Amino acid sequence: MDDSFTLSAIPLRPPNPSYHGKNGFDVGFVEQVDSTDKYALNLALDRDRVAQRILETKGRPIPSFEEMQKYVERIETPVTVRESIKELQDEHLEDLKILYDYHAAEYIQDMKDFYVSRDDTVYLEEGERDQQIIAGYQRLEGLHSRYQQSLVTGSSLIDEFTELRHTYLARLLELQQRLQDLEKREAAAMRVQASKFPQSVFELNDSPKEVQQRVAKFLLSGKQGQEKMLDEFGWAWRQTEALMNEYKTNVSPGMVPLPGTTC
């Protein structure tokens, strides 16, 4: 490479004239605020404060590739969804705390500003008071009174709380719906599992403990008890015949009876 080559030798691409006066952003991404509209200016200021607070308090580090892969490959179960719901609830409480602390600090600062904006030493004896100062303080007190009243209907706290609550409830309802779906599928799988009757001693011993106990109870029950269990678990007599015959002809010590009983 030629040592005389410098960056200054590279021709710079001229800016697109369509962005002139728009701070580099397309008009579609910049909301033009009328500088004479006090309401619009206050609204823009509130939005800027919200954006700055979100940047300060909601920043999250970018997860590593391993963490992202683990999240994508994880198997969703009712347990993991309940954990997600708990995390969401904790996050929402923390967001509310940040929101309330911010507005409380802002209100306290406003009250301090109002307090120091008034100098009681200018109130002299009757007849010596400056009427212009008195009128100014009356306007200041009127402004303060209107500000106090606007806290109920005009504070950005209400809008921010509503947005925060809506986002939280939307995510919570989604997780609760997923939890219900998973629990239904899990219950259906358990019903299918419960409806299966082992066909041999070896199959019985490989079954979950609750299945072993259920089958052992069936084998040890009388005719009436067995018929009741057939209806309860959806078994058919043909399903039970193989194991019942094996049980009757060759009672194996490997069969698992109910606690406190023996085969």
- Number of distinct beta strands: 0
**Radius of gyration, in angstroms, nearest whole number:** 37 Å
Count of alpha and pi helical runs: 9
The major sheet is characterized as: none
- Which sequence of SSEs, written as H and E, runs from N to C? HHHHHHHHH
Q: Which percent range describes the beta-strand content?
A: under 5%
Gross morphology is: elongated
**Ends: how far apart?**
91 Å
Q: Could you list the spans in which at least 5 consecutive residues all have pLDDT below 50?
A: 1-11, 25-30, 255-263
Oligomer description:
single chain
Provide the structure class: mainly alpha
What percent of residues adopt helix (DSSP H or I)? Answer: 55-70%
Could you walk me through the main structural features you see in this protein, from its secondary elements to its overall organization?
The chain has 263 residues and is mainly alpha-helical. Among the domains are: 76-194; 196-249, no CATH class. The protein has helices at residues 38-57, 65-73, 78-116, 131-153, 156-195, 201-205, 209-220, 223-233, 237-249. α3 (78-116) packs antiparallel against α5. The protein is elongated, with a radius of gyration of 37 Å. Residues 1-11, 25-30 and 255-263 have low confidence and may be disordered. Residues 165-192 form a coiled coil.
